[in-house]
Design goal:
449 residues, mainly alpha
Length: 449
């Protein structure tokens, strides 16, 4: 089930390793979309706005969990590439200890702060209670998110991108059934949608955990593997925290933007929510490309295959640009049909506004492709703090456009993410070549010594 990304055609590896990742992201978005579609169609526009109003804070916390777990897996990918199973196992056990600690702290903190966060974000009174119920339920399920992301990241670091997908498919189907039962049969409103998502995430995490424990001889623990080591824990934190903070810093800009959109009223919140859900689904290939490049970079740095870093970047960039053009075409032709999935009959008048938001997003998918490809490659190469600076620029871009919302209105909200992507790209390309030179220089010095 493991895959060595240090040998063979980079383009073929992008397809063989990245395609299962793509399916995983698609199904992950699927059960998010199911929540939104069922909420919007059955509970109405206010319920959809309540779920949408929590989107940025949801991304802040869940994105941090995903980022930190992905960062913890980078040393494992590097040790796998270096063919050092003993160190690989000890980095894996270190990740487990850290996830237990971070999971407990984040769950307690976020659950206690939900009310204050929604207040600071200017959540409208008519949707405040539903928004609180939804996001508090998600935050109480943070341990399930840690379990899945930790196990999935370790599996991918070993080259197994299929197992996480299999369990996400199963979890997505379970989530659909639970949504129908909880919302339509039991009348559990937005709590039912959130609870179904948490249970589905828990199921996917347990499935991946069983696979890790039973399917990989390289991970059979030996005496001393579970011993805490400050050096390894420090290295894991040096990799994981910047990646987690990168998501959180990016999300801060989204929170500022969401607060500005909230001030425009429920109508605009509903429009942005519907358009964002479609855009997130269309962006799954970019997420898959990013995760592929993180593992590809980690394994090839561990194997000291410096030239393959450029080859992988070139191959993935071709895929990213090609898909971005195709996605824009799809939005122009079928955008209204996709947007209508999330609106009830009373909200159909918002379709032109939702389509405007979606077209503007899709027109800038090429910069978004490079944000994912280059940033995650830099992380896989072992430079998460540098990649985090790109998140700071994304935050700055969204914040500046959020400040323009009171003056320019809805169009400023539409251009916020494109501005963030362009600013990040202006930094990421020079940063990648700088990191590459540092790696080659360090290798040359090591060889000389």
């Amino acid at each position: 089930m493991t895959k060595d990304l240090t040998k063979g055609s980079p383009m073929k590896l992008m397809f063989s390793f990245g395609f299962p990742l793509l399916l995983g992201f698609l199904f992950q978005q699927l059960y998010n979309l199911v929540d939104t579609a069922i909420v919007g169609k059955t509970l109405g526009g206010d319920a959809l706005a309540a779920v949408g109003a929590t989107g940025s804070i949801n991304f802040l916390v869940v994105g941090f969990v995903s980022g930190i777990c992905g960062g913890f897996a980078i040393p494992a990918a590097q040790q796998f590439g270096a063919q050092n199973p003993k160190e690989l196992r000890r980095f894996v056990t270190g990740s487990v200890w850290l996830c237990l600690v971070f999971g407990l702290v984040i769950t307690v903190a976020t659950a206690l702060l939900c009310d204050s966060i929604l207040t600071v974000m200017h959540t409208p009174n008519e949707i405040f209670h539903r928004a609180y119920v939804y996001i508090c339920t998600i935050f109480c399920g943070i341990p399930a998110y840690f379990l899945y992301n930790m196990c999935a990241s370790i599996l991918r670091s070993l080259g197994d991108s299929r197992t996480p997908v299999v369990w996400l498919v199963i979890a997505s189907l379970v989530n659909v059934v639970l949504d129908i039962v909880f919302i339509l049969s039991f009348g559990m409103d937005v709590f039912g949608a959130a609870f179904a998502t948490v249970l589905a995430q828990l199921l996917a995490g347990l499935g991946c955990l069983v696979r890790l424990c039973r399917g990989f001889p390289i991970l059979r623990m030996e005496k001393g593997d579970w011993k805490l080591d400050k050096g390894r824990l420090g290295r894991l934190c040096a990799m994981g925290l910047p990646m987690g903070l990168q998501y959180s810093i990016t999300a801060i800009g989204s929170i500022v933007l969401q607060a500005a959109v909230n001030d425009l009223g429920t109508t605009y919140i509903t429009a942005v929510t519907a358009g964002s859900k479609v855009s997130m689904f269309l962006c799954c290939p970019f997420d898959a490309m990013g995760s592929t490049m993180a593992t590809y970079g980690g394994q090839n740095v561990g194997a000291r295959q410096w030239g393959r870093l450029h080859s992988g970047l070139r191959a993935c960039s071709i895929l990213g640009v090609g898909y971005a053009v195709a996605a824009l075409g799809l939005v122009l032709v079928a955008g209204n049909y996709l947007n209508a999935l999330f609106l009830d009959q009373e909200s159909m008048s918002l379709l032109p506004m939702v389509q405007q938001f979606l077209v503007i997003q899709a027109a800038f998918y090429i910069p978004l492709a490079f944000v994912n490809i280059v940033r995650f490659l830099i992380q896989g190469m072992g430079f998460p703090p540098i990649a985090t600076l790109a998140g700071v620029l994304e935050m700055a871009g969204r914040t500046l456009m959020a400040c323009a919302v009171p003056m320019l209105g809805f169009p400023a909200a539409c251009f916020a993410s494109p501005a963030a992507w362009i600013l990040a790209d202006l930094f990421l390309f020079p940063a990648y070549f700088l990191c590459h030179r540092r790696l080659r220089g360090s290798a040359a010095l090591f060889t000389a010594c």
